[in-house]
Amino acid sequence: xxxxxxxxxxxxxxxLFWGYEALRMLTSPTYGLDDAWRSQFVFAIGSxxxxxxxxxxKLAAFFATLKLAVAAICALHIADRCRSLISGTADSxxxxxxxxxxxxxxxxxxxxxxxxxxAELVRESAIQLSLAAFxxxxxxxxxxxxxxxxxxxxxxxxxxxxxxxxxxxxMTQTPPRVHA
Length: 180
Known about the structure:
By secondary structure, the protein is an all-alpha fold.
């Protein structure tokens, strides 16, 4: 359907762009701190926590690793969607966790961009934030629609239904006995 295509396209976007940016940061000797505009959020967070230069490099490496993790999560989701075309259904909960990471990182990086009045970085962050929010909403709608479509025979049994034996009765808990 169209929602699946949109989710796949957004997953592909984050896999490619965030994966490239994470690899660029991780292979840089300064972990991406040489790009003054894109690393402003690292400097802002570092100044808030009073980090030394080595602490800034570790923080930049941490954010690069988070971006690489998001790219890997999106790649796993794309592979899961391809698998679901052959058999079964895709599990979008992993992608939702990755999208939450995207939202957190984007919100952390948009603050210094607004503070420095850099419209290009604010626009880039707003696009990434809106794409992540849109994909998360589509995943939630898709999961809700899948629950509606499943028939009562396919839904999991409640503990009371599982407790019914061959006689069709439910197991009830007996009240506690009081001894006088």
